[in-house]
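During the second year of the project, the team shifted from modelling isolated chains to modelling whole assemblies. The rationale, set out in the original proposal, was that interfaces cannot be judged from single-chain predictions alone. As a representative example for this report, we include one of the complexes processed in the last quarter. Its constituent sequences, exactly as entered into the pipeline, are reproduced here:
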Amino acid sequence: THFGFSEVPLSEKQGLVDNVFHKVARRYDIMNDLMSGGMHRLWKDVFVGKVNTRSQAGFRHLDVAGGTGDIAFRVAQKAGSDAKIVVLDINGDMLEVGRDRARERGLDDRVEFVQANAESLPFPDNHFDAYTIAFGIRNVPRIQVGLNEAFRVLKPGGRFLCLEFSQVAVPGLDKIYEAYSFNVIPAVGKLVAGDAEPYRYLVESIQKFPRADDFEGMIRKAGFRRTGFERLTGGVVAIHSGWKP
Ligand code: SAM
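Output from the structure prediction step:
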């Protein structure tokens, strides 16, 4: 409510999100380092540590809202060379940066980039061994639809993993975190990307995201079982997971 983005109707939300990432695509990676003080690298390492790539030959991985490829490259590093990894994102500008980075890393034959919406995945049912989404689900206008799609494309026995900002559960840290979010983040955004507005949206979308236990309920509603979540850094982020039975 701080900046009025909450008033945006559902049908217009995706357009707003797309504008944000269109504007910041080329500076996205440096912004992540600046705004999280490098913490996002650590969170992503812990997150990808949970992906069991050794489960079988021909491992198929889908990273949704994969942007510039941070998660996919980490998965590629630990998976066998026969693994197939797909980065899916709605934004062509983010994917373009991802493709360039994959080429630089010599990973372009193992990582495929697909432009599509998390709410309507262009893959058959029961197709992937694992589905990841990092700092992406809160951008999807209809979260439940996105989760239902994740469930559909996973094979039975497939794993769902989501890394997202959460609620700071440590007294004192919550106040610091809020002050940081609403003051520092938009200011750095203005300095580096030349525009504070996309980052105001970002902070607000974090605040509006469902609480960890409610979000787990949505994951269960999609059909996942053995669900759970783990908070990192005092609850600044959380990793949610579940299996398709
Ligand atoms: N996963 C990457 C990471 O952790 O660095 C990128 C996260 S970035 C904060 C959010 C991404 O979600 C953007 O690249 C954006 O284009 C993408 N996105 C937003 N809405 C989407 C949708 N409906 N379907 C797929 N991707 C979407």
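The pocket of S-adenosylmethionine is lined by residues 14, 17, 21, 64-67, 70-71, 89-91, 94, 117-119, 134-136, 139-140 (CB under 6 Å). Residues 226 and 242 are 5 Å apart (CA to CA).
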